[in-house]
Amino acid sequence: MAASGTKAASLAADVSPASVCSAMLRRALARADPAAAVREQLRWGGEGAAYGPTLRVGAAVVRWSATPDPPARVVVVGAGKASAEMAAAAVRALELDAGATGRRAPPCSGLVITKRGHGRDPAVRGALRGANVEVVEADHPVPDEDGARATRRLLELLRATSDARTLVVWCASGGGSALTGGLSVAPDRISVRDVALATDALLRSGAPIEDVNAVRKHMCAAHGGRAALAAGASFVLTLVVSDVIGAPLHAVAGGPTQPDPTTMAECRAVLDRLGGARALPASVADHFYGGDAVADAARETLKALPRGSRGAALVVAELRQSLLEAATCAREMLGPDATVAVLTSRMAGEASEVAKLVAGMAIEGPALVGPGSASGARRFALVLGGETTVTVPRDCAGRGGRNQEMALAVAVELARARGAHAESRGVAVLVAGTDGTDGPTDAAGAVVDDATVPPERVTAAADALRAHDSYSFFAREAPQAHVRTGPTGTNVCDVVFIVGVEAAETP
User: Fold this and answer.
1) CA dist 328 to 33, 241, 337, 396, Å?
2) Residue range 82-105: average pLDDT?
3) Which residues pair with 350 in a beta bridge?
4) Which of 3, 17, 9, 7 shows the shortest CA–CA distance to 377?
5) Is the model's pLDDT at 166 over the cut of 50?
6) Residue among 228, 148, 218 at smallest CA distance from 181
7) 5 pLDDT exceeds 50?
8) Which residue stretches of 401-482 are H helix?
9) Rounded Cα distance, 428 and 404, in Å
10) DSSP character for 447?
11) What are phi and psi of 57, to 5 degrees?
């Protein structure tokens, strides 16, 4: 027992709360690595059956063709912040780059759309070039002309290659709904600019992301199963890196290949809360409010895929896996006596309100853990994940994102509680987006404690929160708090780590 206590005390002395948080984030991101996930879960089925009629997808063997012949062609497409990495991994897993494998691979082509600055790893781009798969970068979270043009080309490629002997691999990941969202279902009536204005209004409203996505799916040409419709007779294998709470297939990247359960009536209810038709561009308002039941039916998303459609889908990476990996990392670093718990993967709500709950956990965590281990040290890690929202006024000029806003709100609460709750010292809170970009900034989030905001700067921090200018506050007042990973090539929502490391008292 004495040896165990000595080891535990040593563990507590060797790590800081912030360093544990950083290590947990690295492990969480590694678990969500889209390339590793695809390579692990996708290959040709059977012994020595490359280019055969079956695929091994996760634990299942999927028959994509009724004949033993190899595919006439493979089409690799998709959209999202992880789409380029996923597509490159699929090319390697299915041995589609003939120059790299030496095999006579079936003809391959494709197009993936990713966020600007993502998917630029030379190995990723090289693998895709070798398989004739193009990468297009576009704006996110508000769609733009580049994304709209690329989406039109992607759908045209699916229609042109529709055939029973075509295998389509669609790589869907977070961000895909914005990247393909600029091309409307009626581009002659609803322009890219009008879609962008409607999207921006929805995002600024603070509406839950599932409500935003429901509206986008009824407005955008590649969403709500319409991409599967374009693929026609082809077999469509959908690989998903999910950024949606609960990982429902229809909700990721606009659900391009999946039936959609949401309705036009539900969309109007969402838009009514936003202000109804008067809050929208005229063309978008007419789309949702200007028709009758017959018009609604014509504008609905697919509720079931057409008879004869063929396909399969697999979530290859999602938030819960990353949260569990982060918890494992915390146990390894804090030792066997530490209290480590994954609390939820369904964190949601206004970022500043969720921050009050998170700050409360940080303040009370040491007391709730108890008197400590045999060494007298108290060590704990609480793990949460999900996606919050921020309601932003139309004329807001502040810089930041939901994760930096939550982190700053937590820091303010910790600063205010510092005098009354000394036990919260030695606790750090990390809030970060797994995609590496929080809002239109170069930060993924921030890691804070009760000293991040000094007492004399609490008012300034509160002012920054009201102005939704958390990035500027951190950059000016606490640059060391910013978490910068660069674009990670993945996206499985956001993570929150609350870590306490209180060393044993010296006798």
Assistant:
1) 17, 21, 13, 40
2) 83
3) 389
4) 9
5) yes
6) 148
7) no
8) 402-417, 458-466, 470-477
9) 14
10) E
11) -120, 105
Residue 388 tokens read as 């919050």
* Residue 62 clears pLDDT 70, i.e. is over it: yes
Identity of the amino acid at 53: P
Q: To the nearest 5 percent, what fractions of the chain are helix, strand and coil?
A: 45, 20, 35
Q: From CA 194, how far away is CA 143, in angstroms rounded? A: 10
Spell out where 116-255 has E strands. 133-138, 166-173, 235-241
Distance CA 125, CA 101 (A): 17
Query: What's the first-to-final CA gap in the chain, in angstroms?
Result: 18
At residue 367, the pLDDT reads 75
pLDDT at 427: 94
The CA distance from 3 to 192, in Å, is: 66
Count CA within 13 A, CB hemisphere, residue 3: 0
pLDDT tens, residue by residue, 9-58: 445 456 899 999 999 999 999 999 999 999 999 999 865 568 889 999 99
Tokens read off for 162: 């529709």
In this structure, are residues 473 and 490 in contact, taking their beta carbons and an 8 Å threshold?
Answer: no
pTM of the entire predicted model: 0.88
Residues 501, 502, 503: CA angle, nearest 5 degrees:
110
Query: Which H/E stretch holds residue 62?
Result: strand 60-63
**Does residue 2 carry a pLDDT above 70?**
no
Residues 6+ apart with CB under 8 A from 391: 204, 205, 206, 350
**Three-state secondary structure call for residue 432:** strand
What is the separation of C-alpha 504 from the centre of its chain, rounded to a whole number of angstroms?
39
- Token output for 447: 């890691």
CB atoms within 10 A of CB 408: 31
- SS3 label, residue 440: coil
Distance, CA of 112 to CA of 234 (rounded, Å)? 18
115-119, 142-146, 333-337, range with greatest mean pLDDT: 142-146
d(CA 140, CA 179): 6
Q: If you compute the radius of gyration of the chain from its CA atoms, what whole number of angstroms results? A: 24
d(C-alpha 83, C-alpha 204), whole Å? 26
